[in-house]
Amino acid sequence: MEELRQKYLDAIAGAGDEAGLEELRIAALGKKGEISLRMRELGKMTPEERQVMGPGLNALKDEINSALAAKKAALADAALNERLRAEWLDVTLPGRPRPEGSIHPVSQVTEEVTAIFADMGFAVAEGPQIESDWFNFDALNIPPEHPARQEHDTFFMSRADGCDRPPHVLRTHTSPVQIRAMQAQGAPIRVIAPGRVYRCDYDQTHTPMFHQVEGLAIDRDISMANLKWVLEEFCRAFFEVEGVELRFRASHFPFTEPSAEVDIRCSWEGGTLKIGEGNDWMEILGSGMVHPNVLKAGGIDPDEWQGFAFGMGIDRLAMLKYGIPDLRAFFDSDLRWLRHYGFSALDMPTLHGGLSR
Ligand code: DAH
């Protein structure tokens, strides 16, 4: 009995964790444990033997049980102390500011443009970036053999084998949203549609993905004069220059008639661009009166309704306003560039608070 006692007390003292302790408990006191087996043998003993062995085995069982409990508590204490030591925290240290993100110029300018047009009563409309050939071209009065299709450097989606419908495209402009908005809302309507567009082109001022904002206003008596006013108001607010001057130049788009490209007065003196002064003109957008065929494609009766549309490049607006020379850098995800040209997340552009401060 003394041998058993020493063996288990030593083993318990040396146990490294709770699992080890449990193994020892089973080995000594479990159903087939060494001490349990001895206790079962008591029945075969003579009454005299039993009188000695009975209390001795019971005492041994109690001693082992308390040794197990004490060791378990000690192990738990040690584990807690180790956690307290490892997870120690000096709450008197000064806080370390987290690295701060910033708002990308494209997001900033999209917000600015949206705030300005919202103030003039334009709601925001959206459409898919993977667009059917019909919405991207036909519905905008660009039939299959029209030369404008070639000018768009279109990305085509692949077609299932044997499919003879024209392939879907990555939309080459935001103009298809005009059709979707007309179909969804009917007339009268006043929307802008900012979003991503795609063309297979790459140099300092072109990237295969870029951003446009489309505008559309349709009512019974909307004229070219309304278009001029809206665009002049927009440019004054956007460039934050009182004396902006626009030049409407006759042009051609299949989806508008008449069509005009709009240039803004600027100067390039000393290599820096200044808006609203000087003797240079820079093209900033395309526009016109919505073609009757486009109204029809949108489900609107051209004998009853008329309106204007315009489209401009958001990235280009950002480059002009914030003096960013290379468009490709917009999409490089270079943190140094983003920190330099980015905007604080808390400075939401509003007309009353200032668009860009
Ligand atoms: N969709 C034209 C483009 O991507 C831009 C444009 C021109 C949109 C005239 C219009 C418009 O709504 O009236 O080049």
UniProtKB/TrEMBL annotation:
<dbReference type="GO" id="GO:0004826">
    <property type="term" value="F:phenylalanine-tRNA ligase activity"/>
</dbReference>
<dbReference type="Pfam" id="PF01409">
    <property type="entry name" value="tRNA-synt_2d"/>
</dbReference>
<keyword id="KW-0648">Protein biosynthesis</keyword>
<feature type="binding site">
    <location>
        <position position="257"/>
    </location>
    <ligand>
        <name>Mg(2+)</name>
    </ligand>
</feature>
<dbReference type="GO" id="GO:0000287">
    <property type="term" value="F:magnesium ion binding"/>
</dbReference>
<dbReference type="GO" id="GO:0000049">
    <property type="term" value="F:tRNA binding"/>
</dbReference>
<dbReference type="InterPro" id="IPR004529">
    <property type="entry name" value="Phe-tRNA-synth_IIc_asu"/>
</dbReference>
<dbReference type="GO" id="GO:0006432">
    <property type="term" value="P:phenylalanyl-tRNA aminoacylation"/>
</dbReference>
<dbReference type="GO" id="GO:0005737">
    <property type="term" value="C:cytoplasm"/>
</dbReference>
<feature type="domain" description="Aminoacyl-transfer RNA synthetases class-II family profile">
    <location>
        <begin position="107"/>
        <end position="349"/>
    </location>
</feature>
<keyword id="KW-0479">Metal-binding</keyword>
<keyword id="KW-0547">Nucleotide-binding</keyword>
<keyword id="KW-0963">Cytoplasm</keyword>
<protein>
    <recommendedName>
        <fullName>Phenylalanine--tRNA ligase alpha subunit</fullName>
        <ecNumber>6.1.1.20</ecNumber>
    </recommendedName>
</protein>
<dbReference type="InterPro" id="IPR004188">
    <property type="entry name" value="Phe-tRNA_ligase_II_N"/>
</dbReference>
<dbReference type="Pfam" id="PF02912">
    <property type="entry name" value="Phe_tRNA-synt_N"/>
</dbReference>
<dbReference type="InterPro" id="IPR022911">
    <property type="entry name" value="Phe_tRNA_ligase_alpha1_bac"/>
</dbReference>
<comment type="subunit">
    <text>Tetramer of two alpha and two beta subunits.</text>
</comment>
<dbReference type="InterPro" id="IPR006195">
    <property type="entry name" value="aa-tRNA-synth_II"/>
</dbReference>
<dbReference type="InterPro" id="IPR002319">
    <property type="entry name" value="Phenylalanyl-tRNA_Synthase"/>
</dbReference>
<keyword id="KW-0067">ATP-binding</keyword>
<keyword id="KW-0436">Ligase</keyword>
<comment type="similarity">
    <text>Belongs to the class-II aminoacyl-tRNA synthetase family. Phe-tRNA synthetase alpha subunit type 1 subfamily.</text>
</comment>
<dbReference type="InterPro" id="IPR010978">
    <property type="entry name" value="tRNA-bd_arm"/>
</dbReference>
<keyword id="KW-0460">Magnesium</keyword>
<dbReference type="InterPro" id="IPR045864">
    <property type="entry name" value="aa-tRNA-synth_II/BPL/LPL"/>
</dbReference>
<dbReference type="GO" id="GO:0005524">
    <property type="term" value="F:ATP binding"/>
</dbReference>
<keyword id="KW-0030">Aminoacyl-tRNA synthetase</keyword>
